[in-house]
Amino acid sequence: DAGVIQSPRHEVTEMGQEVTLRCKPISGHNSLFWYRQTMMRGLELLIYFNNNVPIDDSGMPEDRFSAKMPNASFSTLKIQPSEPRDSAVYFCASSPGQGVHEQYFGPGTRLTVT
Amino acid sequence: GEDVEQSLFLSVREGDSSVINCTYTDSSSTYLYWYKQEPGAGLQLLTYIFSNMDMKQDQRLTVLLNKKDKHLSLRIADTQTGDSAIYFCAESLFGNTPLVFGKGTRLSVIA
Questions:
Q1: Which of A34, A69, B38, B98 could make an SS bond with A46 (beta carbons 3.0 to 4.6 A apart)?
Q2: CB-based contacts of B6: which residues, under 8 Å, 6+ apart?
Q3: Euclidean distance between the first and the last CA atom of chain A, given in angstroms as a whole number
Q4: CB-based contacts of B104, cutoff 8 Å, min separation 6
């Protein structure tokens, strides 16, 4: 299995630009999570989906952030407009659900907003 | 609210055992996890334990859980330089619910 796939691996953009991060979960996994990692705040949940349905988006910082999961094999996290404080590593993770308790992480997208 | 605490740094000599400690506050946590993160990489799941267990062993890794004190530890036997990384403790209510992470413990292994 290829594992969780994220793209791009690195993104550098200017303040005010739109940024779209992409995630392909492991095939057959029913749950998908977006986390953000910063030095100051560590790893935090942004949003998660079960069976493509958003369950909890209380971690999304502001309306500038939005996430979608149009099908079981793809999710996007969009920031519009981006700000320097959005600079972080964004991780996507997936979990099989159905009594299986592991979450598997992608390699992350390192976002730098200048 | 949920909170997970870890010490930030640990330094050990190669061949010694490492013990990384973690405390959590949410008594309803059902699953407790240890993840490893190497520089520039994602998080690798090392092991997890159900809250109704006291201990779990997997090769060089031993997890101990004291549910009364809400204390979790990860012991790495015969620590190698390749074990140098940041180790995160995390808790969740169910397997498909979000993880709450500690800040991570940076393990340095001295040759």
A1: A34
A2: B20, B21, B22, B87, B88, B89, B102, B103, B104, B105
A3: 36
A4: A42, B6, B8, B37, B86, B87, B88
Tens of pLDDT, residues B29-48:
789 999 999 988 899 999 99
Question: Which of chain A's residues have a Cβ under 8 Å away from the Cβ of B41?
Answer: 107-108
* Identity at A89, one-letter amino acid code: V
Shortest Cα distance, chain A CAs vs residue B43, angstroms: 6
Task: Assess contact for B104 and B6: CB atoms under 8 A.
Answer: yes
As a dihedral over the C-alpha atoms of residue A74, residue B94, residue B69, residue B7, rounded to 10 degrees, the angle is 0
Q: Write out the two tokens for A3.
A: 């594992």
Amino acid type, A44:
E
Q: What is the rounded CA–CA span in Å between residue A29 and residue A26?
A: 6
pLDDT tens-digit readout, A9-58: 999 999 999 999 999 999 999 999 999 999 999 999 999 999 999 999 99
Q: What angle do CA B109, B44, B63 make, to 5 degrees?
A: 70
HSE of B69, CA atoms in CB hemisphere, 13 A: 11
Rounded CA separation A103/B30 (Å) = 14
Distance, in angstroms, between A87 CA and closest chain B CA? Answer: 15
Q: And the tokens for B84?
A: 């140098």
Nearest to B87 by CA among B24, B37, B23: B37
